[in-house]
Fold these 2 entries.
Entry 1:
Amino acid sequence: MANLMTGKRGLIMGVANDRSIAWGIARALHAEGAELAFSYQGEAFGKRVEPLAASVGSDLMIDVDVTDDASLDAGFAVLKDRWGSLDFVVHAIAFSDKNELTGRFINTSRENFRNSLTISCYSFIDVARRAAELMPQGGSLVTLTYQGSNRVTPFYNVMGVAKAALESSVRYLANDLGPQQIRVNAISPGPMKTLAGAAIGGARKTFKTTEANAPLRANATLEAIGGTAVYLCSDYGACTTGEIVIVDGGYHVLGMLQPENL
Ligand code: NAD
């Protein structure tokens, strides 16, 4: 490895277990020399994250529920006390009621629309505002999205709308924070076998379809997504902001399925 992240410190949000995209990213950033802190959602997740954090040399963990301002404030206060400043934040957080990730989009409830957008989109804005205060020398903010934002993907439903709002937020945040040399980007992986991924109706079929039809005939891997995060968080990404970087084996370029699969 090239030590691309040596001397940089950052917060990883959204590790639930060792299949989480956030964990793949944490591993890649650690391998390049980054010092990491982790946020987790409540005690039960904390127990799972603790050994993972320890395995990459981190004992800096904060309990943050992004729907709770007080927990966000307290978490960032801990980071400020311990480190003083931050170089990057990875936001890999999304939520929607599982019952609405199946069936028809038209049946989206007001309550789940509000929750999904609050947790999956607004939380990134909330985090960006707090993180920017700890980035006097500039930095990098990375979130995770999915192409269901701009192409209809059966059962992705309200999450597609949340991801569209998130991607637009990436561009507005990039413009706001650019003068402070804070870059804001999103990674858009193809389907992954994670807790959140499994909650979406037809997840297995989506996974298989992408694998069978993507130009590379492969799904994204935690390593490939991690490598993209290293690029965006390291100085190699110094002039990239407001971007959605797609890591899906090329699936998004297709106009139709491969002939052998028709
Ligand atoms: P995951 O279940 O491992 O991670 C989701 C995380 O969101 C969990 O750690 C959970 O604790 C956290 N979270 C949910 N609500 C929260 C709240 N109120 N406060 C704090 N944390 C909260 O699943 P994942 O697939 O690794 O998801 C990470 C990101 O990647 C999400 O934004 C997801 O939409 C995105 N993504 C996933 C896929 C996929 O197929 N799995 C594809 C593209 C993008």
Note: The longest helix spans residues 110-133.
Entry 2:
Amino acid sequence: MERHFPNTRMRRGRATRWSRTMLRETVLTPADLIWPLFVTDGSAVQEPVGSLPGVSRWSVDGIVTQAREAVKLGIPCIALFPNTQGHLRSDDGAEALNPDNLMCRAIRAVKQACGDDLGVLTDVALDPYTSHGQDGLVDGRGYVGNDDTVAVLVDQALNQAEAGADIVAPSDMMDGRVRAIRMALEMNGHPNVQIMAYAAKYASAFYGPFRDAVGSGGLLKGDKATYQMDPANGDEAMAEIALDIAEGADSVMIKPGLAYLDIIWRARQRFDVPVFAYQVSGEYALIEAGVAAGVGSREGLLMEKLIAFKRAGCAGMLTYHAPIAARLLGG
Ligand code: PBG
């Protein structure tokens, strides 16, 4: 009987561990990770966030400890989000402009402790400071006004830069805010503060646990569909990204992550700035729920998702799993 051989044996390369290692196309390192952290008032406070098992809000001293841990693990950057006390929230979110607000105190403390070893990324948007939970100023008809909001966001970004933020990340999805913030940074002596634009941010169902963590969830009236994008749209994301780059963004972010790998891939093919993804709170919670339900190991479920972001073209990922992933990667 005549024997038949496959023309090509794809399995030859997979037959041994050394060969699989040698042929691996995508490599994940702790340097790919940005770690989002929640800040709260007080000292020596650690408050677990119920909807994000394993994640806590820390008072500023605890944030500094986490920041030092990030440096030790080889994580290059953290992102800070404040849980503003209720009595400091207002319709106009004025607390965002207070040079001594929780956020600025945390930025200063981390920069003092870690200096150049760790980048601090800050979110530019008013939702942790407003009594209505929207990212901007709401007019009489309930609409978040664009240009009025941009004027406040510029002052918020400057306030963060003055406190020492290395990257300001507008997450508000107003039109024209990247140019306005870039101009203000230049004119006020912050030429090296980077802008990472939440360029394609979708009106997603996956932000719920985050809103718990910053305390805006219960306050939010309505949704954010007049500024965040429709999950059905991809071409529109390319237009958003092109605008943010033209306005002066140094890097762009796609958010959420896993359900938008096509957007990451398209952005990477089309633009020459670094593309980041935010593996958001709901994605974190789903992985943890999967682990608890016995779907698989944390390492397995998490690392497969993180490598998918890299494979799709990400320069890096924001993930609440950053310290766990960094430890698994030997950081
Ligand atoms: C606020 C902001 C949100 C997130 C980051 N910045 C929530 C929202 O837009 O409602 C979500 C992050 C997450 O879910 O992990 N502008």
Note: The chain has a mean pLDDT of 97.
